Amino acid sequence: xxxxxxxxxxxxxxxxxxxxxxxxxxVVAHGSMNGAGRxxxxxxxxxxxxxxxxxxxxxxxxxxxxxxxxxLTEAGRAVLETASPMAEAADAVPRIAAAYRPDPxxxxxxxxxxxxxxxxxxxxxxxxxxxxxxxIAYMPTRRKLDLAAGEADIALRMRKLPDEGEDLVVRKxxxxxxxxxxxxxxxxxxxAPPEDPTLSRQAxxxxxxxxxxxxxARIGDTPIRYQAARSGLGAAFLPCxxxxxxxxxxxxxKSQGDLIEDVFLVMHRRSRERPHVVRVANAxxxxxxxxxxxxxxx
Length: 298
Known about the structure:
Elements: H1 18-30, H2 33-40, H3 44-58, E1 63-65, E2 70-72, H4 74-100, E3 108-112, H5 114-122, H6 124-131, E4 136-140, E5 154-159, E6 168-182, E7 189-192, H7 201-210, E8 214-218, H8 222-230, E9 235-239, H9 240-243, E10 250-251, E11 260-268, H10 275-290, H11 292-295
Parallel strand pairs: 3-4, 3-5, 7-8, 7-9
Antiparallel strand pairs: 1-2, 5-11, 6-9, 6-10, 6-11
Helix pairs in contact: 1-2, 1-3, 1-4, 2-3, 6-10
């Protein structure tokens, strides 16, 4: 049976060591003191000693120790909940500092959804000319990378004006329209996104379109969904610039209303001190302006 080792004679609570808290987080992450020791390059006895020191500093047991396992106590779970954001913040500090003393030769990191990144990739040679002599690192993701923390230099956000802090510079650079496309004018199958229809307007729209039709697959990534539609798997929700450019695909629905989304270019104010970032941002904005008709499905 797991037992507690809380000593009633422990002294009053003292300030815990951050190094000991990091060891505690490693024990939780790796499930054992041996695993944490291997990850940290420390011996198991050293890890055990530091955990004991942390428990003594806090005046509570953090683990219930069984013959072959460790389980967090209620206090341990509370400490974990509090310490985890501290670890994330500590990990972000070097990134933030680096963002304020950027290497002039560092790549310009551009983050966007996969569909927008796919559009940028078609014009990558043009953007490369703007970035020279540095590189552009494309980071396709639906997660909003933290510009203030230095996770990216330029972000393309869609749908609504971002409200993420006064240190960000935001400008609308255009719009992107979406519609359903298929090889047949009367599709019987649909390629749906994987998320719950209640979580996004796109998923809700496709779910409504799919009524009375077979859902042939669920694909979240736009390039893969596009290839699946080209293969004849079913109708797919695609950006108009992509669907209209393929002679094998037919636009099944009209792009209007919520199917036309605003695109915003977002930068941190400090990025204006980096000429390479500014040049790439201006090139991206110019790209959207020059291709605005295709982007909105005209």
